Every structure is written in C-alpha cells, then in structure tokens.
Amino acid sequence: MKKIIIFLILFSHTFSAQYTDINIVKEVKVKNKGVVVSAHPLASEAGSKILKMGGNAYDAIVATQYALAVVYPQAGNIGGGGFLVGVKNNGEKFSIDYRETAPQKATHSMYIDKNGKANTDLSQNGRLAVGVPGSVAGFFATLKHCKLSMDQLIQPAIDLAEKGFAITEQEANLLNASKEYFQKHNTSSIVFVKSVPWKAGDILVQKELAETLKLIQKQGLKGFYEGKTAGLLVAEMKKGNGIITLEDLKNYKVAERKALEFEYKGNTVVSMPLPSSGGILLAQMLKMAGYENLEKYQQNSTKAVQIMVEAERRAYADRAEHMGDPDFIEDKTSYLISDEYIKNRWKNFSFNKATPSSEVGKIIKQPKESTETTHISVIDKNGNAAAVTTTLNGLYGSKVMVSGAGFFLNNEMDDFSIKPGVPNMYGAVGGEANSIQPNKRMLSSMTPTIVLKNGKPYMVVGTPGGTTIPTSVYQSIVDVVDFKLNANISVNAPKFHHQWLPETVAFEKNFPETTIQELEKLGYKAEKWNQIGRTEMILIDDNGNIHAVADGRGDDSVAVE
Predict the structure, then answer these.
(1) N or C: which end of the chain has fewer CB within 10 A?
(2) Is a pLDDT exceeding 70 seen at residue 6?
(3) Catalytic residue positions?
C-alpha cells in the first residue's frame, strides 16, 4: 500500500482538546478496504471510523457530512443543502435531493428595487438570502440505505464540536478574512470572532453547535425542524429581514429522484438530475466532445481544450434557458441529452475559430465571483459507492449564524434567477425556468457523479466550485477515460472553465501558456484564476484496486477503513 502523508502536528497549551493532530493524507492505494475523501482530514477520519464500526458507504457519507459541519464551516453544514448519488453493490442506483427551498413568503420580485434593478446584496448576504435548509432532512433520508443508527453517525461530529479541534492555516486565514462580515451580519457575538487573529493550531470549540447536534441525536428530524432549534432559527430571521417561518421548516421535504444515467465510451455515468444542472451539462458536454475523438489528443493541448470549451459553451447556454426545479417547470432532460439534439447543437463547431457566444444565446454582461462548496467521495469494502456535494452557497453562506444554535445559514436564494438575465454570484444567468417561487428549489451546478464499468463503480468523483463544478467533473472523466491518466494527475492538473457567458475562458494560473496563446490566436479570450475547484476522486480498477486522491489545492484528505 502506497501512502503520501503530510503531517501537520498542531498543539495548543491553553486548552485540553482531543483533536490536536491533523494528518492530511493526499493519496492512498488499497484493496478490500473502504475509503473516504473529503475537504478536511478530521471529517474523512469520522467517515472511516464509521466504516470500521461496520457501517457502509452511506453510513460513512452521513457521518462525514455532520463532521464537515463542525470542522469545515465555510461549506460543510446543517444550515444548507446538498445532493447524494449512490450506487449499491446490487446495481441499485439512486439520488437524494436535499436542496434548499424558497420560503412560502418568497416572491418573484423580492430582490428587485422600486427602479426595477436587482439588488444582489440582499440575495447574497444577510437573512433574506436564506433558503429553507435541507441537509439534516437529507441525512435522515439516507438512513434507509445505512446499517447503523443516526445516534452513532452523529456522535463523531458532537465530539469534534464539544471537545474542540486545532484549526489549519487555511481555516485561520479564512476566519480572519471573514471577521468583518461576521460582525456585520450577526447581532450577537459568535464563536468565530475573537479579539486577536486566528492562527494555525488554535482550538475551536463549538458548544452551541454540539447542543444542536445532540438535539438531533435525541429527537431526530424534529430536533432540527421543530422545537428549540427551529424556534432559534425563526428568531434569527426576525432580527433582520428574513422570511423563513416555523411552518416552512416543518414542511420541508426531501425529494428522492431517479439518478440521471447515460453512456460514455462503454461506461455508464450516473449523476444528479434536475434541479442540479450538473448531470445534464455533463451528458451534453461529454457527448459533444465525443464526436471529435478526444482520445487522439493530449490533456490540456490546444485542440482538446478547444473541443471541450465549445461543448461547455453550448451546454451552459442551454442551462440558462431550460433548467430549473422539475417540480415547477417542464423537464426537458431527455430532449436536451438526446443524440439528435446534441448533434444539431454541435453543427457549427469549427477548429478554425472560437464560436461567438452570441451564436448560442443572447449576450448579457457578466461579473465573475468566487465560490465555496464541498464534496465527499466514498466507497466501502463491499463495493457500495456514494458521492455527495453539499453547500451553503457562498463562503460561510449568508454569514448569519443562528444565535444559540451555533450554525451558519445558507445564502442559496441567490441561485435563483433573481431577475431573468441578471447573473448570480457565480456569473450564471438564468431565465424564467429558474425564477423565484414559494417552495421551489433553486437550480444548482453540484455534480456528484459515479462512473460504472461493467456495472461496477469505476470512478467516484465531484468537486466544489459553483458553476465550475460540471466542467471540472467533465475534465476528470475525460482525463481518465480518454487520456488514460491516473487519479493523481487528473485531480491535480491545472483546470480550465467556460460557461457561455462571460465570453472568457478561465485558466488556472499554472495552465500551459503555449495552449493559452494558441487559443487566443483562434479568438478565445483568456483569463487567469488562482484556483478552480477541489476534486475528490476514487478510481477502482478491474482487479478491485482502489486509488483515492484528495485535491492538493486545500486541506483535503483521504482516510482508510
């Protein structure tokens, strides 16, 4: 077994805590064992602990999500939502949609001022930006696929919150950078704000969050959606302009949906259906690129990138026009991923020049924003696989913490089209299909994905990154299937992204400069980004050998059963 291990031994002499050793494991090769890959080593270890207790992949995915709510508060959550894609060793495929919903008092024009201008500050920050949280309901909906009790699955998170853990340098930097926002959007003091700057090794104890988790442990779903916690959440709404009510919380329902499936070069891709745009985009992009025999080219070569960017351009134009909550709009998935439609969409592709975005949709000026989500990939020793992507939307969501309950609330309302044609915080444009309606789920880009070979899990993959999520998953699949690259190279290679609008193609700062220059000669507009996504990948070969890789862009880590 090969391991590349980075040790960060963090000590604090001022507080006695159990979790002061942070072991970041970036790559593992094993066989006949379960593995968990997530954004934080303590969360991955929580999941692997559950596997050692006899739990399966779905037990581990629940425990890891709870733990992320404690140790990775910028995106891990109980105040947000997510999607789960699962494939069992008996061939059963399923998905669970615990995306947030619009409160009953939400209106089509709730973020538009008297002059008809969209106020994106209201949709992105503070209490009016909050959608009804779905995460906890999603964890309970996953239980029917689990072997252990919720009492057992939530305990590692309770221990982490109650006893405290040493924060990493990345977390310290984020907390320091966000201090002003925390103070602006919270009326009472919160545990994340202190008088001196945070530093690596400081112990973070979250007593209020521990008590909230204990209520869920004792009372089940009602411990979050009713009673004390629900009352505290609604009281938080009333401190500002929030509109979530006790009735909204009590009435929240998970949607169990049929996973989206399609074939790609002899493999079955299983991904998330609407209200995630991810699965549809993935199917469209892979099918379009498939017409050009990508395997002839090298990863990140000029022609390979051009093919993939043009596929992205066309798919994201369709996202803006056609995609939303399937319970509120006509679901055009089968049409949008049909061979006939996709062949027609690809007709105007040319190697000679960039296709103007105006030829595939109406141009609207776009801003570019940063992103924050988190992904978990798990496989157990029996071959059950799970992929979950979960989010608060922006960094620490709305920046609002529920006073007395210790958790951040999402700013997911910004993922609606707050005004058709006006881009959200990630620059994504939407139309009427994704307009605000009470109880509606906002369109998402999260793309938890499992690829099957001969009916068995071959790849478990996903990433954070807002609208860059589908393109990063797309690149991951192409890297492995077409370019025959291993998991480490695929995960850590520099990435690129295009989403129809803005017209520019984003490249990570270490992307091959020659490729960028050659694309610019063809009419592509390039832009450099510091980072695109943080991919968590598990590959399983025909002999059952597992290669798990955590992205080198962050504190992401693998843990083994």
Answers:
(1) N
(2) no
(3) 373
Per-residue pLDDT, 14 = 33
267 and 363 share one domain:
yes
**In angstroms, rounded to a whole number, what is the distance separating the alpha carbons of residues 262 and 280?**
10
Q: Which amino acid is at 418?
A: I
Q: What is the CATH number for 283?
A: 3.60.20.40
Residues annotated within the binding site for L-glutamate are 99, 391-393, 415, 444-445, 466
The answer to whether 193 and 207 are in contact (CB under 8 A) is no
The full 3-state SS of 224-251, as one line of letters, equals HHCHHHHHHHHHHHHCCCCCCCHHHHHH
Tokens of residue 353, six digits = 């020049």
**Bridge pairing between strands 93-98 and 255-257:** antiparallel
**Claim to verify: residue 45 and residue 151 sit in the same structural domain:** yes
Q: How far apart are CA 73 and CA 67, in angstroms?
A: 10
> Side-chain half-sphere of 517: how many Cα atoms within 13 Å?
3
- Residues whose CB falls within 8 Å of the CB of residue 40, separated by 6 or more in sequence, listed in order: 67, 68, 71, 72, 76, 555, 556, 557
The span from the CA of 100 to the CA of 97, in Å, is 9
What domain count does the chain have? 2
Query: Domain of 433?
Result: 27-256+372-441
Last residue of a domain, one of 441, 464, 487: 441
What is the pTM for the complete model shown?
Answer: 0.94
The pLDDT assigned to 465 comes to 94
Q: State how far the Cα of 457 lies from the Cα of 542, in Å rounded to an integer.
A: 10
Tell me the mean pLDDT in the region 239-257. Answer: 97
Residues 354 and 215 in one domain: no
Asked if residue 183 and residue 42 are part of one domain, the reply reads yes
Same domain, 427 and 490: no
* Lookup result for tokens 């984003």: 506
Q: Return the structure tokens found at 66.
A: 């709870």
Residue tagged 């320091």 (tokens): 176
Q: Is 18 exposed, middle or buried (0-12, 13-18, 19+ CB in 10 A)?
A: exposed
Q: Known binding site: residues?
A: 99, 391-393, 415, 444-445, 466
Residue from 331, 332, 254, 250 nearest 95 by CA: 254
Residue 19 located in a structural domain: no
